[in-house]
Protein: Schizont-infected cell agglutination C-terminal domain-containing protein
Organism: Plasmodium falciparum Tanzania
Amino acid sequence: MDDVKLHKMKTVIEIHMELLDESKREDCELNRKQFLEICIEQFSYILETEKKNIIKLNKLQLNIDNEDIMNHMTEKQHMFIQKMMERNKFLLEMWKRKEWFHKLKENWKFQEKYYNITQIQSNNVENFKTEIKNIILEKQKIIWKKWVAKNVMHIEESNNESLLKDFITHNENIYFQDKKTINNIKNQNNNINENSLKKYTEKKLLTMIWINIHMLVLDELKKEEIQESKIILLDKLIDRLKNKNDTKTNQPIIHIIQEKKENILQYKINHINIYQGENENINFKWINEEYKNCNILPEEIDTYDMTVKNPILDIQTDILLKNWENMQIRWIDDYIHIFFML
């Protein structure tokens, strides 16, 4: 095969990799909001409980004035904490390279694989079918909701001071509590207890941190899935070419595909699943305990991969393979047309 054809083949491979990458990213963006809403919903229970505790501790009556004060307080705090999180995106980048984050990510991966479609109530699945929804997506959302809800309970029962301290350490010039708002509320109602408001602010900040951490878990695994999809596509191309009669002609193309695959694998080594050893104070026992369970029932996990995950990727890669073959046919037609024009 001449260099021009090889270059064209390489271009086609690159195009299909980009198409796969783009389609996966679009799906992730479309679905991310739904998973974020579930995450916020589960963590919001913590804040509502804490807010009720503030009212109870300060013996406030739920009249209009006091309710306005509480709403004003929570709105101001929300804006303040949002600004804090925006300023500290680099912390998420730092945390995702920690061992505890890697374990949390593996915990979700295990949870997603462990709960297969048969474990979801059949009536729910039937409802999804009648509503013509994506069954796999709905299944993932149910699993995500259960997993996040379980983690919320663990977080409530665990000591989060180390995580909060890590966040505050990088914000020494900004005191996380909105003092002005607190003072305004205290002036309007002397019964407001500053300690309870401080506790509520800490809780809200931690909630925002944990929501962002959970969404980062989802984002990082989606990146891995994209790379995995590319590898599956390239493996299928290699197998398809090896099964053809003209193996000698296809060998240069196979070599190009293998090079591309090696580049993707190297990217995974350099950018994915990189984490530091646990050499800091942040250490969550509940994450470690869940992580130990990740090695349980490997046979069932493999069954999930074969029956659910792989067919989804197979369908996507088969579509791209069809495009590949159609493009090759067009090249042959163009070549024949040029030949007869000579």
Remarks:
- Residues 3-57 form the longest helix (55 residues).
- The mean pLDDT is 70.
- Residues 3-341 form one domain.
